[in-house]
Amino acid sequence: MAPPIGNERDTTGTTRRSLLAGVAALGALGAAGCSRVATASTTEGGDLLERLKAAGVVRLGIAGEIPFGYIDKNGELTGEAPELARVIFKRLGVDRVQPVPSEFGSLIPGLKSQVFDVVAAGMYVNPDRCEQVIFADPDYQMLDAFIVRKGNPKGLHDYKDVVEKKAKFATGTGYAEIQYAVEAGYKESDILIVPDQVAGLNAVEAGRVDVFAGTALTTREVVKKSSKAESTKAFAPLVKGKPHVDGGAFAFRPTETRLRDAFNVELHKLKKSGELFRILQPFGFTKAEMTDLTAKELCAGGTG
């Protein structure tokens, strides 16, 4: 669930990170999956797909964030990205997926150092990240939303409201929302940075902040059981003065263009048939989050 700051959704990756009761299970599976993958090939376009077929397994870098990629209460890997990976890699001749848990900010470094084969964490595509990795086309698009106290007493509906009403503002580590708030005029040093949307919800409920910013999907999911907080209507943040829509996608090492291209072929088949929506819908995605955005336009700084 964005642009510039670090690694993911964040502004270089904004992020999302761990939510879940299965953190212990996440660690256990991580231990089994953290040995490094084979050294990258010098073959034109890479030969990783052939090596994955031979091994019968692909290692997925995940960040433990619901609903993008996480370990559930039964210790099973799930989330929109892992479930989509299962379908696509099966079609590519790779029968199994294996999770390699990581901090969100460590996903791109882990991919580049070959700790895993692909990032499957719903990572936002943005120009900063595109300088480090290559992306498949987005499998979803996303707007922002706020977590606020019930009734939204301060009337906070976008970043401009947060600045004008001098609201106490929080967002997640490496989230793209940091830059969106700064662009609207919020002082970065005044932003409360918390680990994830659960911590953001807690901060709002406790009155430590007036608002937590995240993706529309994660905010609406996390407030479902809250009696003290609610999610605002989704909105497009402004980037360079224009409304901006983010798109999340799988990331690959720059040398592995053949694997990325093969992945894209299957992804577009799923989009055309409607199967992509059926895969993502159980994780809270709606048809409004389906997209025809391309990695190329997002890497170029679209879409405003």
UniProtKB/TrEMBL annotation:
All copies of domain Solute-binding protein family 3/N-terminal, residue ranges: 57-287
UniProt keywords, alphabetically: Signal
Keyword Signal: yes
SUPFAM superfamilies cross-referenced by the UniProt entry: Periplasmic binding protein-like II
Keyword RNA-binding: no
Pfam families assigned: SBP_bac_3 (PF00497)
Xref: NCBIfam families: ectoine_ehuB
Protein name as annotated: Ectoine/hydroxyectoine ABC transporter substrate-binding protein EhuB
Organism, as annotated: Streptomyces cylindrosporus
Top-level taxonomy: Bacteria, Bacillati, Actinomycetota, Actinomycetes, Kitasatosporales
Gene: ehuB
